[in-house]
Amino acid sequence: MASNTATMGNLPSGVGICTTIPDILYLPELIFGGLVWILVACTLVVPQNPQGWVMFVSVFCFVMTFIWLLIFACGGHHNKGSWAAADFVYHGIAAFFYLSASVALAKVTLEMKDGSSFQNYQLDIAAVVFSYVATLLYFIHTILSAIRWKSF
User: Fold this and answer.
1) pLDDT tens string 34-50
2) What is the CA radius of gyration of the chain?
3) pTM of the predicted model, to two decimals?
């Protein structure tokens, strides 16, 4: 009988994604990315351009991470070497996107300190914190995915 747990060199499927590194990071990425999405959507969107980028990144990464999670959970990855490389590339792009969105969101939040309502300011501060946490999670996932990819 096969075990659902996997070593660093294997790509898990099914319940194994909830017990292996770096795949266990999917759920925190979804949670913190969703929180960024919700908090930015709740605030007054001024200026539109940086906040629009933050919304795009948070929604894009949330949807793509959820799809990626489903692919791994359903066992849709057959050529393990190329899927490991794709996992590394996706999480590297997501980490870069989240870093750029986090910096833009922090800049907008600092600029709106005096000019907006205190409630919007607090929501944006929370969004900045969660955005940097999501960036860190995606960055850690990228490093661990690179290690797994290189072990193939």
Assistant:
1) 999 999 888 876 667 78
2) 17
3) 0.85
